Amino acid sequence: MRGVAFGLMLLLAGCGGGGARPATAPLAADDGIPLNTLPRQNLAAGQCGLFLWKAGNEARLVLMAQVQPAMARIALDGRLVDLPRINAQAGDTGGLFADAIYSDGGTTVALNIRLEQRSGLEGGAVVTDGTLRLDRANGDGFVMPVAGLLACR
């Protein structure tokens, strides 16, 4: 529960006021997971986004996905990487991130998450259980547990 509260605080900070901000470099983490920590992410008005944190005691933002355009952002090898969704279906909405696959041909991210509506969370949902699988063309890959939020602005 503490992780969800922390995640909600980060999400709300990321959904704050508009205005362009300078790009922030991804933060490296020393926990054995090759994904870097994403800097603050902003949603445009009317946009929905999925925010996933590495589950556990050292939660950190590792993925932000959106519907329009259908893409996911990760921080890998010290740079921000936007991966287009490759299994999008006509009519997809914010609630259909559950089994999304994103790839640029060299890096593929597959999500398997369960979203749960909660009272008091208007226009969003909590990721109560999930995994993120990352595979690279060179054969490297990993699977990690994730938690997160789906939110709309």
Name the descriptors.
153 residues; 9-stranded antiparallel sheet; mainly beta
**What is the residue-mean pLDDT, rounded to a whole number?**
80
**Distance N terminus to C terminus?**
23 Å
Our estimate of the beta-strand percent is 35-45%
Rough outline: globular
Helix count equals: 1
Query: Uncertain regions: pLDDT < 50 for 5+ in a row?
Result: 1-22, 90-95
Could you give the count of β-strands?
9
For the CA atoms, what is the radius of gyration?
A: 14 Å
Order of helices and strands: HEEEEEEEEE
Helix-residue proportion: under 10%
* SS-derived structural category: mainly beta
- What characterizes the major β-sheet? 9 strands, antiparallel
Number of domains: 1
Give structural notes.
The chain has 153 residues and is mainly beta. It has one helix at residues 2-14; strands at 35-36, 48-54, 61-66, 71-76, 79-84, 101-103, 107-116, 125-136, 141-152. Strands 1, 2, 3, 4, 5, 6, 7, 8 and 9 form a 9-stranded antiparallel sheet that branches. The chain is 8% helix and 42% strand. It is globular. It has one domain.
Set down the secondary structure blueprint.
Elements: H1 2-14, E1 35-36, E2 48-54, E3 61-66, E4 71-76, E5 79-84, E6 101-103, E7 107-116, E8 125-136, E9 141-152
Antiparallel strand pairs: 1-4, 2-3, 2-9, 3-4, 4-5, 6-7, 7-8, 8-9
